[in-house]
Specification:
Helices cover 43% and strands 12% of the residues. The strands form two sheets. It has a three-stranded antiparallel sheet with strand order 1-4-5, covered by helices on one side. It has five helices and five strands, in the order H-H-H-E-E-E-E-E-H-H. Helix 1 runs antiparallel to helix 2 and helix 1 crosses helix 5.
Length: 176
C-alpha cells in the first residue's frame, strides 16, 4: 500500500481544477485538440473514481458502461435533478479476472456529459458518422473510435498539468 499511496483530496481538487481549466481552454480551429482535452478530463475523473487501471479504462467500450439515473430532490432548485451512477465492466484486467468497477462521486454525471459532447462533436465535425456500442469509450475520432490515444500521451499530459500546479500540492505523507 505504501508503494502507491492514494492522492489526498486536497491535491486531487487542485489537479482536477487544473484539468478542468485545461479542458475548457479551446484551441481555435483545432477540433481534435479540443476533443482530446474534454476526453482527458472525463478519463482522469473516471479513472480516479472507478479505481481502474489506465489500460483497463482505455480498453472500455460503450457497451461495457452501465449508467443508471436516480433522480434526487434539490433544495436549491426545489425540483428533482438527475443523478447518474456508472459502473464499468472490466473485461481484461492485470489479474485476469473480470469485474464490475463501480464509479463513485459524480463520475456517472461526467460520463453522461462526455457522451453528449461526443455526439455533438461528431455531428458537427464528422456528419454521417455513427457512434456504436462496440466503439471505445475513449477512442480517437481520427481512428474511428477503434484505437485509443497512446498511454504515453496521456501520461505526458498528466505530468504537464501536475507540474503546473506542483507548488500548491501537499503530497502524501507516506511518499516523497
Amino acid at each position: 500500500l505504501d508503494a502507491n499511496p492514494a492522492m489526498s483530496e486536497h491535491d486531487y481538487r487542485i489537479i482536477n481544477k487544473a484539468i478542468q481549466k485545461f479542458a475548457k481552454t479551446y484551441s481555435q480551429g483545432r477540433p481534435d485538440t479540443n476533443y482530446f482535452r474534454q476526453m482527458f478530463w472525463c478519463f482522469t475523473h473516471t479513472l480516479k473514481n472507478s479505481g481502474m487501471r489506465p489500460k483497463e479504462l482505455l480498453n472500455a467500450r460503450f457497451k461495457d458502461v452501465t449508467i443508471t439515473n436516480k433522480p434526487r430532490w434539490s433544495w436549491d432548485t426545489e425540483s428533482e435533478e438527475n443523478k447518474y451512477y456508472a459502473s464499468i465492466w472490466v473485461r481484461k484486467s492485470k489479474t485476469g479476472k473480470q469485474r464490475d468497477a463501480i464509479c463513485r462521486s459524480n463520475a456517472g454525471d461526467r460520463l453522461v456529459a462526455f457522451r453528449q459532447y461526443q455526439k455533438d462533436w461528431f455531428a458537427r465535425y464528422r456528419p454521417g458518422f455513427t457512434l456504436t456500442d462496440e466503439m471505445l469509450l475513449f477512442g480517437k475520432p481520427s481512428e474511428n473510435m477503434l484505437k485509443t490515444v497512446s498511454h504515453r500521451h496521456m501520461c505526458n499530459t498528466w505530468r504537464d498539468i501536475v507540474n503546473s500546479v506542483l507548488p500548491k500540492l501537499k503530497g502524501n505523507r507516506f511518499s516523497e
